[in-house]
Amino acid sequence: MEKTLNRIHPVSDPEATYFLQVSWEKDLGTGFGIVLSDGQCAWTGTVSAAEISREAADMEMNREKYVEELKKALIAGEESAGKYNFAIS
């Protein structure tokens, strides 16, 4: 299993710091687990391959392109800094 951990500062609260951990088996397109933490609390979830396909279809985006964008937003880290915005609600 592969994992990444990135620090994010959501646009909804730029002074706050959150930590986003993403874990996956083969590749992100087969589904992944996610943990979001503010350092005191943590929230967990999973995203299935079917949910990824559904979201790509809803956005009228090729599934492979959608998975590439997910990679850039969720696991690319510093190289994608400033290109993606996160909002916590």
Description:
It contains 2 helices and 4 strands, in the order E-E-E-E-H-H. The protein has helices at residues 49-58, 63-74; strands spanning 2-8, 18-24, 31-37, 42-48. It has a 4-stranded antiparallel sheet with strand order 1-2-3-4. A hairpin with a 6-residue loop joins strand 2 (18-24) and strand 3. It is found in: Nucleus.
In short:
This protein has two helices and four strands.
* Percentage of residues assigned to helices: 10-25%
Radius of gyration: 13 Å
Q: Give a count of the beta strands, DSSP E runs of length 2 or more.
A: 4
N-to-C SSE string, H for helix and E for strand: EEEEHH
> Major β-sheet, in short?
4 strands, antiparallel
CATH superfamily: DNA double-strand break repair and VJ recombination XRCC4, N-terminal
Coiled coil: 49-76
Domain XRCC4 N-terminal: 17-88
Protein name: XRCC4 protein
Subcellular location: Nucleus
Topology (elements, then pairings):
Layout: E1 2-8, E2 18-24, E3 31-37, E4 42-48, H1 49-58, H2 63-74
Antiparallel strand pairs: 1-2, 2-3, 3-4
Features:
89 residues, alpha+beta, Dna Repair Protein Xrcc4, Chain: A, domain 1, 4-stranded antiparallel β-sheet, 2 helices, XRCC4-like_N_sf, XRCC4_N
